[in-house]
């Protein structure tokens, strides 16, 4: 994989990301908020399927976000190559999650049309490569924290292990994106999952 050069990003945008709250889209937050309540009273399989569908919805959103970034015309090489690579990782996550949901007897949540993700992510506000990278970094950090947050909820230990592996991928994505934005490494331990 090619490295993203940090000098591709204007340093005055760093302050924006530092001030930004790291959140998921409103739709993803609503789904995550309902997970614990919905999982109560369900069988172990049904509760796990529900959590996996939340994860699948996050992967659909990430795929859409990277597609929007790639189509925007704002990403230059080698950043575009990295965005496409990360989108490929998310497609792999999507496929694995959907297969697991089906194996457990569930129905995978459907992907939304790209224009819905564009509205939810406020893609119209993306005016530069930095804007796209900031959005991607926020989504990756949100996904990392979401995966780490649901690990204890799984009834099946193997599914918890998969969620941890997904969180590791999301953390790697966040790290690369943050570095490309010129952000410093976290100064405190236990930064993720808090």
Walkthrough of the structure:
The chain is mainly α and 194 residues long. The protein has one domain: Ferritin, CATH 1.20.1260.10. The chain is 65% helix and 0% strand.
| CATH fold topology | Ferritin
What oligomerization state is this entry in? Answer: single chain
Question: What is the H/E string?
Answer: HHHHHHH
Uncertain parts: 1-43
Query: Alpha-carbon distance between the termini?
Result: 30 Å
CATH architecture: Up-down Bundle
**Mean pLDDT, rounded to whole units?**
81
Structural class, please? mainly alpha
How many domain modules? 1
Largest sheet: none
What is the CATH superfamily? Ferritin, core subunit, four-helix bundle
Strand content: under 5%
Give the total of beta strands.
Answer: 0
* Number of helical regions: 7
Keywords:
mainly alpha; Ferritin; 65% helix; 0% strand
What's the layout of helices and strands?
Elements: H1 14-19, H2 26-39, H3 44-71, H4 79-103, H5 114-120, H6 129-150, H7 157-180
In short:
The chain has 194 residues and is mainly α. 65% of the residues lie in helices and 0% in strands.
């Amino acid at each position: 994989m090619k490295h993203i050069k940090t000098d591709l990003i204007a340093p005055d945008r760093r302050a924006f990301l530092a001030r930004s709250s790291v959140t998921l889209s409103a739709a993803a937050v609503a789904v995550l908020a309902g997970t614990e309540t919905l999982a109560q009273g369900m069988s172990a399989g049904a509760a796990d399927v529900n959590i996996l569908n939340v994860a699948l919805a996050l992967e659909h959103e990430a795929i859409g976000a990277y597609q929007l970034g790639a189509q925007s015309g704002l990403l230059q090489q080698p950043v575009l190559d990295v965005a496409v690579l990360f989108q490929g990782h998310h497609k792999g996550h999507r496929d694995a999650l959907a297969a697991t949901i089906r194996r457990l007897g569930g129905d995978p949540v459907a992907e939304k049309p790209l224009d819905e993700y564009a509205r939810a992510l406020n893609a119209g506000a993306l005016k530069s490569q930095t804007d796209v990278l900031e959005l991607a970094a926020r989504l990756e950090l949100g996904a990392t924290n979401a995966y780490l947050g649901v690990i204890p909820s799984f009834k099946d230990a193997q599914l918890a292990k998969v969620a941890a592996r997904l969180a590791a991928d999301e953390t790697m994505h966040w790290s690369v994106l943050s570095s490309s934005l010129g952000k410093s490494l976290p100064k405190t331990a236990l930064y993720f999952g808090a």
